[in-house]
Amino acid sequence: MSFSTPKLPAVGIVANLSDEDRDTLSSYGTFHLAQVGAVLIEQGQSQGKLFFTLSGLFHARRADDGNDILLGKIESGEWVGEIDLFDPLSAVCTVAAVEPSQYWAITREDLEDFLNNYNSAGIMLMIGLATTLSQRIRGITAKLAEQADINKFRDMTVEFAE
After folding, report:
1. Alpha carbon 29 to chain centroid, angstroms
2. Is 75 helix (H, G, I), strand (E, B) or coil?
3. Cα 48–Cα 56–Cα 92 angle in degrees, nearest 5
4. Which of 40, 87, 121, 137 lies at 20 to 30 Å from 131 by C-alpha?
5. In 10 A of CB 126, how many CB atoms?
6. DSSP letter at 15?
7. CA gap 74, 151 in Å, rounded
8. Taking Cα atoms as reference points, which of 3, 5, 7 lies closest to residue 19?
9. pLDDT, one tens digit for every residue, the chain (162 residues)
């Protein structure tokens, strides 16, 4: 009986990598199973890893002043951990499994080794990560603008009522 080694699928930021480059990148990280409640990233802690969701569902939540805010869902084919990977001060939120999940993780050190050894594939990977970060920043900016509009309307309503 032969066992196959897990491999990253051709989706998300690795979709443009060749099969060989994806297989090589797969070997630089590790594959894991997560049960419900398993925490990948803990708010306030530095973890220095990038995670790719193979299956299942994770929630990104932030706790502030007694409020627990759902920032987003991380589904199959999505990445998380890129902020702490590049700016390892402390995680801005907690990411935990909300259903049994499979994921792949790579440390910053192993990612740097891959980038140094496979320049072309590394460039494609970094472009994918930059695209992901840009899309997330754009989404947050839109939410902040929407909240500012709501607050402005609320302030106008209060002034009118007085």
Report:
1. 15
2. strand
3. 35
4. 40
5. 13
6. T
7. 29
8. 7
9. 444 568 999 988 888 899 999 999 999 999 999 999 999 999 999 888 999 999 999 999 999 888 888 988 999 999 998 887 788 788 889 999 999 999 999 999 999 999 999 999 999 999 988 888 888 888 888 888 887 777 776 666 666 566
C-alpha distances (whole Å) from 27 to each of 21, 54, 106 are 10, 15, 9
- 129: tokens are 């990560």
Distance between CA atoms of residues 7 and 23, nearest Å: 6
Encoded tokens for 120: 């072309």
Domains along the chain? Answer: 12-161 (2.60.120.10)
For tokens 């802690």, the residue is: 45
SS3 of residue 143 by DSSP? helix
Structure tokens at 125: 């990977």
How far apart are alpha carbons 33 and 101 in whole angstroms?
6
Provide the 3-class DSSP secondary structure of residue 89.
coil
Residue 145 one-letter amino acid: A
Instruction: Match 């193979």 to its residue by tokens.
Output: 54
Q: Where are the alpha helices (DSSP H) in 11-118?
A: 19-28, 82-86, 108-117
